Amino acid sequence: MRKRSIVLFTVSLIAGLLHAPKKKKTPLAEQNNPRYFVGSWQYLDNEQRQHSLVISPSLELIIDQKPIKASIINSSGPSLVYRDALGYQLKLQTNLDGLTSFYDEADNISYPLTHTN
Predict the structure, then answer these.
(1) What is the largest CA-CA distance in the chain?
(2) SS (H, E, C) the chain
(3) Quick check: is 78 in a domain?
(4) 41 with 116: CB under 8 angstroms?
(5) Would residue 1 count as lying in a domain?
(6) pTM of the predicted model as reported, rounded to 2 decimal places
(7) Structural domain boundaries enclosing 35
(8) What pLDDT is stored for residue 20 in this prediction?
(9) I need a surface site. Which of 12, 90, 92, 113 has the fewest CB within 10 A?
(10) What is the pLDDT of residues 36-52, one digit of tens each?
């Protein structure tokens, strides 16, 4: 009887450990918040012309002081993705240090961003 109890206890313990909820690695809450992308940046195009890029508090995308007609299609993790009026994606990438790049699907080019104050 005692052996049966020990075996039953051991099996129950192992089953409990195998089916225990696993702790998920949660990304930084701040980075998962689309408001993390709010701010002003600049980038150089292929012809070395400087452009400004602004994400307003309402998450409106503004390039060179012109609002872009675009809607957010994804705002998870380290990226914020817009779809413009022509159907192209405009993707903002970030890391722990802040916004790092702006990808324009229409031109198939990724531009490094620098933060402006």
Answers:
(1) 84
(2) CHHHHHHHHHHHHHHHHHCCCCCCCCCCHHHHCHHHHCEEEEEECCCCCEEEEEECCCCCEEECCEECCEEEEECCCCEEEEEECCCCEEEEEEECCEEEEEEECCCCEEEECEECC
(3) yes
(4) yes
(5) no
(6) 0.68
(7) 25-115
(8) 52
(9) 12
(10) 788 899 999 989 999 99
